[in-house]
Amino acid sequence: MQRIRKGDEVVVITGKDRGKRGVVLDRVDERHVLVEGVNLLKKHVRPNPMKGINGGITDKTMPIDHSNVMLYNPVTGKGERVGFKEVDGRMLRVFKSSGAPVGGRN
């Protein structure tokens, strides 16, 4: 099961963007996630009038390893570890520190 999913709010715990918070935009593969506003890269874009693309330098979000982010707990205001608990035959994600279910869809 995935501990970090699309739409979750996460905190970066290591690397050049340490301490930044953002929403997971997508899971690239089993180990990498795209986080909004984190791990940005400057990309030079050639103009293409046929496609309506203006030229210049744009920011591109690059994948970050899922081990470098933690799920954000709004109650404590920090990143926390996530575990699983079975409730009514369903597996729910819960925060390890408090046992409270993770907000949003589980």
What is this structure's SSE topology?
Blueprint: E1 9-12, E2 21-27, E3 32-35, E4 40-45, E5 56-61, E6 64-65, E7 69-73, E8 78-80, E9 82-87, E10 90-95
Antiparallel strand pairs: 1-2, 1-7, 2-3, 3-6, 4-5, 7-8, 9-10
Structure characterization notes:
The chain starts with 8 loop residues before the first strand and ends in an 11-residue tail after the last strand. 0% of the residues lie in helices and 46% in strands. A hairpin with an 8-residue loop joins strand 1 (9-12) and strand 2 (21-27). The protein has strands at 9-12, 21-27, 32-35, 40-45, 56-61, 64-65, 69-73, 78-80, 82-87, 90-95. With 106 residues, the chain is an all-beta fold. It has a domain at 9-79: Roll (SH3 type barrels), CATH 2.30.30.
Keywords summarizing the entry:
106 residues; mainly beta; SH3 type barrels; six-stranded antiparallel sheet; two-stranded antiparallel sheet; 10 strands; 0% helix; elongated
Would you summarize the structure shown here?
This protein is mostly beta strands and 106 residues long. The protein contains no helices and 10 strands.
